[in-house]
Write a structure and sequence with these properties.
Length: 278
Amino acid sequence: MAAITAADVNKLRTMTGAGMMDCKKALTEADGDFEAARDILRKAGQKIADKRAENETSEGFVTVAVSEDGTNGKLVALACETESVAKVANFRELVQRILDAAVRTNATTKEELLAVKEDDGLTIQEHITDLTGKIGEKLDLTYVTLTGEKVASYIHSDSKKGVLVALKNVGSADAAAVGRDVAMQIVAMKPVAVDKDGVDSATVEREIEIGKEQARAEGKPEAMLEKIAQGKLNKFYKEQTLLNQEFVKDGSMTIAQLLDSKSKGMTVTDFKRVAIGA
């Protein structure tokens, strides 16, 4: 059995960021083999992750990056269980590491991003598992990317909500400023689609049936139910689709009218909204 010194423990702690006692235990179990000890710590993190898999993650941190030419945006959200963990340095550092990896590799999916291998030989997934072992909480990654003529972003003041929005026909308008206003609208009003054409058929059918049932409950004649339901569907489009929503900063215009006033024909082609705990 190898003698485990304080220097050995400190070296492993520097390598992994794990606690002193965890490092000492891992080194003892690995008989002084540092690589084996790192594997032991990683497995311990996986055990914690498995054990806490059903826990809720209502806290966390959102960060975003938009390319220099403004045509692509990437948003990373790492959720955890408690507010205190979301504020610690190694948690924030991991979020930034993940975003940097997404930008560097131009990852298109969460799965692709999790598989990215860093210079230290560990994948992003392994880094998340390692931090899970250190902090003892479930961590849950959300990753979205968006491409367009111009992409703007917004992170809410609580750092738990973020939006990417793609604009078209920007012209000479300030895309970042206009996009920020639209993105703030998306955070606040939670539209389900850009416009009515983007609402899936299942949602449309459900809203029509709800409209019919409400009208029927109000005693309306069966012959009028379809027309009444269509009217309620149009109201749904106005309230729940981005371009038709009233602008929260100026209720006298819709988002479509806001965009057109900044540059003729400017519109939104797509958006991504991410919210931790909501």
